Structures are given as structure tokens and as C-alpha cells.
Amino acid sequence: MGKVLLKVNNLSIHFGSQDRLVKAADQVSFVLEEGQTLGILGESGSGKSVTGLSIMQLLQEEQLSLKSGQILWNGLEEEQMDLMQLSSKKMEGVRGQKIAMIFQDPMSSLNPVMKCGDQLLEVLQRTKAPGEAKKSLVMEWLEKVQLPDPDRIYHSYPHQLSGGQLQRIMIAMAMAGEPQLLIADEPTTALDVTIQKSILQLVNDLKSSFHTSIIFISHDLGVINEVADVAAVMYRGKIVEYGTLSQIMTDPAHPYTKALLACRPPVGKKLKRLPVLDDFMIEDGTPSTALFDSWTQEEIDDRLTRLKEKPPLLEVKDINTWFVAKKDFWGRPKEWVKAVNGVSLKIYPGETVGLVGESGCGKTTLGRSILGLERAARGRVSYRGVELLELSERAFRPYRKDLQIVFQNPFASLNPRMSVGQMLMEPIGEHEAACARENQFPLFSFFEHRSCVTGVLWVQKENSHHRTDD
Predict the structure, then answer these.
(1) Do 357 and 454 meet the contact criterion of CB atoms below 8 Å apart?
(2) Do 219 and 187 contact (CB within 8 A), yes or no?
(3) Phi then psi for 289, rounded to 5 degrees?
(4) What distance in Å separates the CA atoms of residue 67 and residue 92, rounded to the nearest whole number?
(5) What is the three-class DSSP state of 360?
(6) Per-residue DSSP letter, 400
(7) Which of 311, 308, 314, 318 is nearest to 403 (CA)?
(8) What is the 3-state secondary structure (H, E, C) of 325-337?
């Protein structure tokens, strides 16, 4: 046992009223030692982020109906103090210098009207002695987090950088004050697997260099397995299992932990139905063997053959979407970024097509070009025989109900000034007449995910809605 750096005792955070009470954290307790990495694991809504925000004292007091427990901090050169009892002014001396946090979504965490270098400089001015935070120190941190061309990054705004680069900026800002504890709230969720791997390696390298303790919050078992020494499994606001990583991964005791492990999609076979947590959260703990039924290769090939007997629903031919990278003195394009360069594909009714590739390879731009959200320079997009790229925006509108997209980042996609009900009513009202007439969901949907981008076709059969995937 090393020195205990942080001890959380019976932390409870409740939102709402007695009529509708949400116990985001319910009697949460754990211990973190110096140099240790604690992984907090659980599905969305289990209370992981609320626990991290409580340690940083970043929850809005007016929204809380209950806040109780202890968060005991044992700094390296200070007496034990309860962070729950500190004033806002004293807490400012803790954030950044003693405890820092990497937030889940860097785009909504960074200031969109400030250059990235200035934002990092601002952190250094708060956490370092006067005069120490100079541009050279900022550049040094940009190099430490392995960002290419630090001078360009310094003068770039957040929207000019990729998701992986923004996450490295956030890591630099969190580590610049050389904190004793780093809280990482799902820092790799929106990143593809190659960028995710490099971010995890970077976090481990910085931990070794600065002897930092880490609380790593994630819903991904693979990620927790990469970084954590001990793990706490959260379910409905409670820690239901706590122990070493090997113990939890190889010999889980709680049904919820067993369910998390069992729900991982298997490698090398295609299940007929993807298991969910509720399939395993049953009294006797023995899920149906039908959950693990998989398609044979013959069945998959036969289904693909039958799908392709029909004419394609969507056909993309030699589509090119380029962006101007540099202009000459007269404002004429000089260099181009070829985001999509000569892509062709066909999608048949009932078929799912996955686009896989690293960040910046053109997956999202291709989807946006198909749906008319980016204007392609040339090529053809044919939907049921209609050439979409030849349509004006006004002529394209009737097809919006059939061609839909689910964006990758909900924070940037949803209107913060509208309620969930209002946002759902808006597209229903927009397409109400067409949907009522045809009684169907969109025929083509484009989903963005960090591992792949997928098109799902919806088909109507016997006045009900069926989704067929492949």
C-alpha cells in the first residue's frame, strides 16, 4: 500500500425533486494511491462523470437536491482537506495545480474564438509563477503531447484541428500545471482506434514522467484494460464492484460486471442479435443460449446474393469533394485538400455498408456529400434513379425525409436552447405530410461512429418497420 492521495467516502449527488429524483452518485466510496490509475467503468448514465465533476467541484449547486459525503485530499506537501468543504476561492487553488481534468468533448470544452496556443498560455499563467509562462513553454508542451508543427497548432483555432489534435491540446492544458491527480473523462470516446491508441500511450507516458495519479473514466473495457491498475464498476450511481483489474476482468462477482464482459461483440463471428445488458441482468444469471447464435458464412453469402438481385437504392460514381487549402495573391485556388477523390459504391435495399478508416481519410465528407450537405466538385449520386447532385437545394428538400444523417457529436448537433421534445417535433413537423402519406421512416440513414461510418436502409413491410442489417 502506497500513500493514499484521495479518499472518497459515501459521496451522494442527487438531482431533481422528490417527485423525480435522480441519484447520480449514491454512497460512492473508493481510495486512490500515489502513482496509481483507477478506472471507473460503466455504461452511460451510471454516474461516472458526475463523480469526476464532484471531485473537481464543478457541479452547479443550484441544480443539486442533495450533496453529501467526503472527498479527502492528501496532497504531497499539505494537510488533509475535505474538498466538499472548500470555498470557491480556495478550490481555484486546487484546480489545475493539484487536480486537473480532461473533458470528454474537446470541441465544447475549448473556447472557439481563442487560438489554441493562447488557451494553453492562459492555463500556464494561472498555474505557474509570473513570467514563467512564455510562448517557449507553450511550444514545449505542444511537443510533449506529440503534436506536429507546433507553430501552426499554436496559431490555429479549435475548428481548424482534428479531434485527435484537440484531445492532445486538452491533455497539454490539463498537464501543464503538473497536477498530482489527473481525471480523464472518456478522452478517447470520439476517436478512431489508431488515434485512441496513441492518446492512451501518451497518457501513460505523461504519468510515468510526472508521477501523476489518474482517475480514468470510460465505458470501454478495452480502454480500461490498457491504462488501469484498479477498477471500480458503477451501476445506477453505485459502485457495485471494486478491485484489481485482473480480478474484475477474469473473475467478476457482480451480475452487472459479468454482463459488461459478456456484451462485448465477439471477434471472428457475426451474431444474429447483439446482446444487451438486460439479457444478462436476470435472476438466475443464466442468459438464453440463443443470444450467442451466429450467422454461418453460407447464410451471409446467400443473403448478400439475394440483396443484390434488386437494383441499387443508392449509387455513387466517381465522386470528388475537394477543399481549397491555399489561395494565390488574387484569391484564386492554389492548393486543394482532396477529402474525397474518385469514390464509387452501390448500396442495395436492406444492406448496411461500413466505411472504415482513420480520422481525416474522408468518411464523413463522403457521407455529407451523398446527402448534399457538402457540394461535390464532380461525380454522380443516384438515389432511385434521381441524380441528386444536379438538384438545387430547394429541389433536394423533398428527399430529406428519405436521406438522413446521425452526426458524431451530439453536443455540436443539438440546439442547447430547445427541449428534447421540441427538437424531435421539428423534423416531424417538417416532413409530416410526406411521412403520413407514405407511412415510413427514412430509407437511408448515415451513422457516424468512431470505429466506422455505416449506412442503414429502412424498408416498409406489412405496415410495420423492419431494419435489416448486414
Answers:
(1) no
(2) no
(3) -65, -20
(4) 20
(5) coil
(6) T
(7) 314
(8) EEECCCCCEEEEE
Sorting pLDDT into bands at 50, 70 and 90, what band is 1?
Answer: low
Grid cell, residue 66, equals: 442533495
Task: For 261-286, give the DSSP string.
Answer: HHTSPPSS-EESS---GGGT--TT--
**CB under 8 Å, gap of 24 or more: what pairs does 410-415 form?**
411/105, 411/107, 411/108, 412/107, 412/108
Dihedral (Cα; 271, 275, 280, 281), 10-degree rounding? -170
DSSP 101-151: EE-S-HHHHS-TTS-HHHHHHHHHHHHS-TTT--HHHHHHHHHHTT-SSHH
pLDDT digits 0-9 by tens, 19-54: 778 889 999 999 999 989 999 999 888 999 999 999
Three cell numbers, residue 6:
484521495
Residue with cell 458524431: 408
Bin 228: left if φ > 0, else alpha if -120 < ψ < 50, else beta: beta
Burial of 288 (0-12, 13-18, 19+ CB in 10 A): exposed
Reference 201, options 146, 140, 246; nearest CA is 146
Reading the block at residue 283, the C-alpha cell is 435472476
Query: What CA–CA distance (Å, rounded) separates 211 from 57?
Result: 23
pTM comes to 0.77
